[in-house]
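Dear colleagues,

As part of the handover before I leave the project, I'm documenting each prediction I ran so the next person doesn't have to rerun anything. This entry is a single chain, and its sequence is reproduced below.
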Amino acid sequence: MIKARPIVARGVIPGAAAARLRQRRLTRLQGLTIPVDGLPGSLALSYTRCGKPNCRCAQGGDEPGHPGWQLTYRIAGRKRVERIPAAWVEEVRRRVEAGRAFHEAVAEVFALNAALLVLERRQRPKSARRRSGTRER
């Protein structure tokens, strides 16, 4: 389980809306575990033509080519594509779904944090807000 602690200590934001957001965030964080074998990206069935003139894929039958599974993902901003054997498809699909569920949970926690920040900003007295265009030294 991931231990969550604020980077900067701030006062507790009063109000029912903030309390609901904090409760949703806490509930989401308590159920959040990093999937050890989770995978990023998506798994898709694609069809390719082999290029042989007498092959069934060149004849234009029911299928547009030879079926093959591919895992597409990004690492360090670069797109990667890995071919997946048919025997591995169910296991890889399960691992991709686990990775997607984790990613969505983290995105929800970040969205809740942003909503809490907006509430905090709205509740801060105007005198405490810094004017635009001035710099701190």
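The first helix runs from residue 16 to 30. DSSP finds three helices and three strands in the chain.

All the best with the project,
I.
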